Amino acid sequence: MACTEQEGKQEKVSTAGLPTKHASVDPAQCRNCHAEIVDRFFTSGKGRSFYKADTAYVIENWAAEPVYDKQGDLYYLPYQVQNQFFIREFRLDGLDTVHKRTELVHFFIGSGNQTRSYLFQKNGYLYELPVTWYSRKNLWDLSPGYEHGQNSRFSREIGTQCLDCHNSGFDPVPNSINKYMEVGHAITCEKCHGNVQDHLLTMQSSPKSKETKILKLDTCSLQARLDVCRQCHLEGVQIDKENANSGRYSPGKLLSDHVEIFIPVASDQTEFGFASHAERLQESACFQGSNGKMTCTTCHDPHGGSPNSAEVYNQACRNCHSSGHEMQCSKVSQIEQSNCKGCHMKVSGPADIPHVRSTDHWIRKRPVVPAPISKPGKDMVFRHFAGSHANVGDVLKAKLAYSETHPSASLFQQIDTLIHKLEAAEQLKYYYLSNAPWQNRLDTSSFQKSVNPWTLFYWSQLKMKSGLTGWLGDVKKACDAAPDMLEFRYRLATGMEQCGQNPDAVYEDLLKRQPDQERILNNLGYSNLQLRRYLEANNYLTRAITVNPDYTLANENLARAFLEQGKFIEARRLLIRLSKKFPSEARYQQILKTIP
Known about the structure:
Low-confidence stretches: 4-22
Number of helices: 22
Strand content: 5-15%
Shape: globular
Structural class: alpha+beta
Mean pLDDT: 87
Helix content: 25-40%
């Protein structure tokens, strides 16, 4: 499915039922026999969807002016040094630079037809950078989802759903969100044709073999052909079906055999998302009345880019609307010069990405101007993409998954009303997310024996909040089952502190895995401050503030450390900064008055 803001927060990669991994094939290897197709493919957005950062693929102006995030009071400067690319975040106080953080760009993601974004990797963990190049307007700006005060800076995790649509050959670490043994490369022939390696080996050993071992889409059912495109050009919440290879889709199969897909929309919404082509096309009378004749390839070359000529689309329309009385077009007398697409498919800015224009694939006689998206609430509808009757439990699971990043009292109430339709593990997740009372409503008998790391984690947190014993042991079990889940290890360390145990070894292990975790740096700084190890405290707390200058607790702790060391100038500087940020917080002014 298409990526959504913080979508990595919702997914947990498991190896259960995954297909056997095979080596990803470079499309250039296919060129010996399919030169014209491969050459066209490399000019398409699919063929340019992902690169290692390299000067050979530069389309941006890396010497542009910095981007300013007004809400966060942060600047972002993209720049190039020889064959490397960097994104620098900084803050100014007058002419002084009071904060600076720089990250090396490791990967370009996006073809650049509309946008291109940037990823960086730390010890195998993959994150998005906060600025994007918007090609149509030739400008840098905050990345989609980072605007309007929602700047997550350098912490947005890149999960497998993102790479599924931009990448081939990636290899996720089991039971992690954003850690990879191999990141992969741009989309290849495998995305639509399956295991290309078997085909190459067969053709090399038996060039005249009738068994080519390659998926030919024209031999598939209509639904299977459409699903090859829908695997990426469809926005929605996906719910894995039981006993369905953990929802991992393979070309030639049906998406509905692996996942149920729900489109969350407000009841009055006419806006559309950038990658919502599939569900919008499905609404069209042209699609519904074509008896299977209309597919994505009716208008689009699967090996190339979208056609630039209106006549290409006009001809596609004429294939069904061939005569004047069928056309019902005000310009029927000038049909050769008309633009069917321009009249019947609305082009506007999508709801989820700024500075771009996208074609709404809902073909209508009179397309309406999209209305603004309503906030999640009581009018939110989860439309089943398949259009058939959906299992109530699956609808609830979709609402629950959506609530992870869009918490809503109304959605929680809808889930609570039918909570008995969910299995115990899903009920547990609901109580964890909603903080609703769970005693005497939740059957907990299976949790202690569970091997699912997320079940163990959710259960540990419910027990901890309710004052029950044994919760720290469950956190340890979750860490053992998912050793690369950073959040589990962080909760283990804070839990050890809460139980009077020394967590420093866990914190140090976390820093080796991810050196830019401000919470860990602050906690280590505070523990050293308590022991009056000022050199270590200063180091950890300064690092925490370098990672996040607005981390209030780290600023307060460092100010205290400076005061205890008699470094009054440094302490005063931090307290003045805090008092400007929180002018109603009287204690900062009170402490300032006591400084010599």
